[in-house]
Each structure stands twice: as C-alpha cells, then as structure tokens.
Amino acid sequence: VSATGRGEADVLIDGETIAAVLAPGSQLLGTDLAASVDTVVDATGKYVIPGGIDAHTHMELPFGGTNASDTFETGTRAAAWGGTTSIIDFAVQRYGERVQDGLAAWHEKAAGNCAIDYGFHQIVGGVDDDSLAAMRGLLDEGVSSFKLFMAYPGVFYSDDAQVLKAMQVSAETGLLTMMHAENGPAIDVLAAQLAEAGKKAPYYHGIARAWQMEEEATHRAIMLANLTGAPLYTVHVSAKQAVDQIAWARDQGWNVFGETCPQYLYLSLEEQLGAFSTEWGQFEGAKWVCSTPLRSRDEGHQHHMWQALRTNDIQMVSTDHCPFCMKGQKELGRDDFRAIPNGIGSVEHRMDLMYQGVVTGKITLERWVELTSTTPARMFGLYGRKGVIQPGADGDVVVYDPNGHTTISAASHHMNMDHSAWEGFEIDGHVDTVISRGKVVVDGGVYLGAKGDGRFLKRGLSQYLI
Ligand code: DUC
Ligand code: ZN
Ligand code: ZN
Fold first, then answer.
1. N or C of the chain: less Cβ packing under 10 Å?
2. Model-level pTM?
3. What confidence tens digit (pLDDT) does each residue in 14-34 have?
4. Ligand 1: which of 57, 58, 149 to mutate, judged by most atoms within 8 Å of the beta carbon?
5. Closest residue to atom 1 of ligand 1, CA basis
6. What is the structure's pLDDT at 63?
7. Region 295-304: what's the mean pLDDT?
8. In the beta sheet, which residues pair with residue 283?
9. Distance (Å, rounded) from C-alpha 59 to C-alpha 417?
C-alpha cells in the first residue's frame, strides 16, 4: 500500500536499500527470487507499507520540573515496536542559551542510543539577534524547520515581535516555521484565576486552555506568516475552530499546514473529569493533561478533525509523544493542575490508532499511509529516502496484519511510562514485522533491534510548499 494506491508485489531489499518492487512471482536475473535471497518475509494476506514517520516527539524533554520519561533509547525502541522507523524530535534552545548549544546537546542525547533513524527540528525559545543568525545556519546542519511557542510565558514563549522576526528568517531561508498556537499570556491569567477559586483538579487545565485561545493564536500566526511570506505548520491542532482557520488560509492558496495527534481524534476533556473512574475530578485525569488540551466531547471537535483529515485541511498525524509517569512526575501537580507536566506518550501506538480510522471507514488505506509516512517525509525534506517503497529508498518497511488484534495496556507497552492514556483500547490490526534500513527489528513479537542502529537524518527543505 502506498499513498497513491495498492496492489500485490514483492519488495526486494538489498543491504539497507530497496532494490526493486516486483510483480508477484517475478524472476530476477533469471533466478527464482524467493530462492535467491537471504531472508524471506511472507506478507501473504497482509499490508506492506513504508515505515511510519513520527515528526513530533519529545524524548528526554526537560519540562515542568522533570524530564520526559522516555530516553532516545526507550522511546525509539517503542516506536519501532509500533511500526515507526523514523522520528523527528525537537532540539531545545531556551532563553539565555545559544541555538548551536541546544542542537549540540540534542545530538549528544541521541547519538548512539536510537533504534531507528532520527532527525531534529529546532525549538527556538529565545528569539534575539544571536539566535536569528544561528537559524540561518540550521539547514547546513540538516535541520530544516524550527518551532516557536505562542504559549508558555517564561519557558519557551515568543511574543509577536519575536515571532515576526523569526518568520522573516523563515521566509528568507525556506525553513518551515512550526507553531505552538495558543495564547499563553491569556491562558496563564485564566489558569491563575481558576486556581485562586480553588479549581485545581486536572480538568481545569482544559478549561483554562479554551478553544478561543487556540483559534486566536492560530489566526495570528497565519496572518504574521502571510505578512512575512513564511511557510507555517501548526502543530498539535485540537480545536475545530483552529482547523477552520487553517482551512481558510489554505483556501487563499497560502503555505499553511496543520498536524493533529491521535489523542485529539479519540480522547476528550471529559477524560480529565475522571470518566474512567468513579469520582469526578480525581487526580487520574492528570494522565490526559497535554497542550493543546483534549477538547470537550460534545463540541464536535473529533468529528471535524476526522473530516479535515479526509479533505486535507489537516495533512499529517504525529504524536507529540511527551511521556511522564504518574509516580514522581504527573503527581507533581496533585494539588494544582498548573504543576502537572504536560504530555501524553503515544509513539508506539500511532500506526495502530490511525489504522482504526481505516477499520471504521473514516479514511482509506492509502490515506493512512499518507498521513503517517508519506506526507511527513514530503513535509520535512525526507521524501525519496523515506515515506515511500521504491528503488533507492531506505529499506524501511512494515508488514501489517489486518486480522491481528491488540489491546493497549501499560502492562505490555514498551514506552517508559507507568500508565497508558490508551489503557484498554482495542486495536483491530497488528504490526507484525518491522524492517529498518534493511534490518528486521521486530519480527512477530520478537525484538531484534539494537541501540545505535538509528542514524541522524540530515533533512532538506520541505517539498510540500506551493
Ligand atoms: N505540549 C505538551 O503536551 N507537551 C510538551 C510541550 C507541548 O507543547
Ligand atoms: Zn507544542
Ligand atoms: Zn510538542
């Protein structure tokens, strides 16, 4: 299955690279193919797809007074288990640090530790003359996108003047501007007022981060991008009103794109009320505290988001994998939702969760591949090497069994988390075999990968711009 169609074929991988895609039973150089190769993976009755690309992860992110609980080693291993063979993680520059130092620190964390290939976006948390100059050198480092935050004052936040200046560099260099679009200063006032009124349970995280805060910031980002000529990619879109802003901008013909995450397609704010427990508002809701927040089930965001995936108003699904354990991490906010580290871990489940959209008739098989692999490759300058099964591409291939079955649970997942935001979710389908640059890393429930197999991906400019 590719983004453009489906058919029966044999895939020949030579070393790390796809050598040929052949009609079934083909002869190669006069020999019977199956008899002349070292390893045969029988995919009869199963789907053969390009390895997943998760373009939004946060391994080891220092955040909320702690570090995201997956290291590059544990997080990329879990990704491999789930049929993802490349990640793009976010290197972080904080205010007062140099961009070059932030990027170097991320190389140090990842090098020699990854099970699968990895690239970086650059978070620029302190836009000033020095960082603007450094951004002009990012493409030479193989980093073709940077992320700004309109949220998190005092942590990663950029004000409008900083956003404007960074976008001017984006327009000049072709680097893609990725935006966390929420009005942080207004959210922080609302959050403080809720806490002051004694409303401190996890649920109020989602109340403070109202959809108006996402719609407004998305619109502002779009207008600043249009003014400067910067291409804009809005991360983790959750509100239907933000989707509409992106759709409107795209209707103008502008280079505006949007990504959503599985949590916004399946989970809702009501989870934070303790929908899976008996007592409303109890702390279990902290498992689902992420930003942008889960939206209210009754407001129709999920239905709208699935529609947007069909119409290409939203182009990609990444996880925003940012795992924290309940014990010692999420529980930092037991007395106040503002101290709960924000994030959900899903890097292992994205391919399975999005396949449920195929099972339930919301998207086609081809769209599943496009949303999870081919578009991420095109969007972030990896296409040809990644995101497609064709001669010359890296041998990143997943065999997916549509008749398999999985129940998601913290007891069996491979992420370094003591709980799962998806506990008990029933998955129709199963990742059977995962091949990463020609090496079988997952084989029917057996892990054969190794730390250090993954290499840094130098990325080129986005191939998705008009
Ligand atoms: N959102 C999260 O949920 N976690 C990390 C950062 C972010 O923007
Ligand atoms: Zn973000
Ligand atoms: Zn993120």
1. C
2. 0.97
3. 999 999 999 877 776 566 777
4. 58
5. 291
6. 95
7. 96
8. none
9. 12
Tokens 């910067």, residue? 230
User: Would you state the pLDDT for residue 42?
Assistant: 94
Q: Which DSSP helix (H) or strand (E) runs through 27?
A: strand 27-28
178: CA distance to ligand 2 center in Å?
9
Ligand 1 proximity of 238 Cβ (cutoff 6 Å): no
Confidence band of 276 (pLDDT split at 50, 70, 90): low
Residues forming beta bridges with residue 435, ordered by sequence position: 397, 440
Residue 118 has phi, psi (to 5 degrees) of: -145, 145
Token digits for 417?
């988390």
Expressed in angstroms and rounded, the spacing between residue 193 Cα and the centre of ligand 2 is 23
Distance CA 229, CA 376 (A): 22
Ligand 1, pocket-test mutation among 292, 342, 344, 347, most atoms within 8 A of CB? 342
Of 198, 418, 408, give the one whose Cα is nearest residue 287: 418
Alpha-carbon distance of 334 to 338, in angstroms, equals 9
Tell me the C-alpha distance between 445 and 81, whole Å.
Answer: 8
* Alpha-carbon dihedral sign for residues 120, 126, 132, 134: negative
Q: Helices 301-311 & 240-251, crossing angle to 10 degrees?
A: 30
Tell me the pLDDT band of 273, cut-offs 50, 70 and 90.
confident
Q: pLDDT tens digits, residue range 350-387?
A: 999 999 999 999 999 999 999 999 999 999 999 999 99
Q: In a 10 Å sphere around its CB, with 0-12 CB exposed, 13-18 middle and 19+ buried, how is residue 263 labelled?
A: buried
Rounded Cα distance between 127 and 165, Å, is: 8
